[in-house]
Design brief:
The chain is mainly α and about 70 residues long. Helices cover about 75% and strands about 0% of the residues. Helix 1 runs antiparallel to helix 2, helix 1 runs parallel beside helix 3 and helix 2 packs antiparallel against helix 3.
Length: about 70
Amino acid sequence: AFHRQLGEDLAALERHAEAILAFSNAARLSPGDLHIETGLGMSYMNLARFPEAIRHFEAALAIEPGNPQVQ
């Protein structure tokens, strides 16, 4: 939970490269977390790293296909 929160805080400060590191640590500790995958997708998108963003958004959709947050 710490790394996910750190990622969210860094993303809010527009420190997306650092947010990716925090979210990546969180993903290693909690694989399959919708919020982590979405956070990674948003951070990559904000850095114009679209292939990586798409990969994480697709992972989020696979976790909860019916969730309107990721559709």
